[in-house]
């Protein structure tokens, strides 16, 4: 059910803009970019449509602002969830748990990032690509530190684990979409599922036991 916010007092600009952005994320997440209208955003925010245009200019600008805000919120949540004083497996677990908790708590924002922004071309897809690159870089660094410590080799190249981090982020994205669409799947369960899938591979890599393809195949 869509809840319309009615306001009767003058709000500071930042608060008013946040209110409109909250409404826009909900509308874009549930209607899609093409199905969303500035009229509905204004109604949901409890403001006039001219005020939405005054603050956020155009539908494209509004959608881009929503993507950026939700991307920043997600990366902040993941980074904040990781304590560097924990063992490597706990660091990865806490990062995954923070990711799935945030995507579960903000399903419209996740839909904007994972579905809507990716299916409407540039420049929206580029915004999501930047988010993904940041998450991959963060996961790569977590894994590199753990692998170097396990090997006692400070020069172990990032390439050894970068592909694994890329795959892990992709799996997390798909699993978050599934978890949000599947009744009864909580953030902890989703994180545990991916942790069980990923940590065995990471553990083998750190211990110097990577799986290798047959020698007679490309």
From TrEMBL:
Source superkingdom: Bacteria
Gene3D superfamilies named in the record: Tetracycline Repressor, domain 2
Domain HTH tetR-type: 14-74
SUPFAM superfamilies attached to this UniProt entry: Homeodomain-like (SSF46689)
DNA-binding region: 37-56
InterPro entries: DesT_TetR_C, Homeodomain-like_sf, HTH-type_TetR-like_transc_reg, HTH_TetR
Pfam annotation, one family: TetR_C_46
Ranges in a coiled coil: none
Keyword list, A-Z: DNA-binding, Transcription, Transcription regulation
PANTHER family the record matches: HTH-TYPE TRANSCRIPTIONAL REGULATOR RUTR (PTHR30055), POSSIBLE TRANSCRIPTIONAL REGULATORY PROTEIN (PROBABLY TETR-FAMILY) (PTHR30055:SF158)
Designated name of the protein: TetR/AcrR family transcriptional regulator
Lineage: Bacteria, Bacillati, Actinomycetota, Actinomycetes, Kitasatosporales
């Amino acid at each position: 059910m869509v809840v319309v916010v009615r306001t009767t007092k003058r709000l500071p600009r930042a608060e008013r803009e946040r209110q409109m952005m909250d409404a826009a994320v909900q509308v874009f997440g549930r209607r899609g970019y093409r199905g969303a209208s500035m009229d509905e955003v204004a109604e949901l925010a409890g403001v006039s449509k001219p005020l939405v245009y005054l603050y956020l200019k155009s539908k494209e600008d509004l959608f881009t602002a929503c993507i950026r805000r939700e991307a920043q919120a997600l990366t902040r949540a993941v980074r904040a969830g990781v304590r560097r004083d924990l063992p490597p497996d706990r660091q990865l677990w806490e990062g995954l748990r923070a990711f799935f908790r945030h995507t579960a708590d903000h399903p419209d924002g996740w839909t904007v990032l994972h579905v809507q922004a990716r299916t409407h071309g540039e420049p929206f897809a580029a915004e999501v690509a930047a988010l993904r690159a940041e998450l991959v870089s963060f996961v790569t660094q977590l894994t590199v530190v753990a692998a170097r410590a396990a090997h006692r080799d400070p020069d172990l190249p990032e390439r050894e684990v970068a592909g694994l981090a890329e795959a892990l982020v992709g799996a997390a994205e798909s699993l978050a979409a599934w978890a949000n669409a599947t009744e009864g799947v909580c953030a902890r369960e989703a994180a545990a599922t991916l942790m069980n899938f990923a940590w065995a591979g990471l553990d083998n890599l750190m211990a110097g036991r990577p799986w290798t393809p047959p020698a007679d195949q490309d």
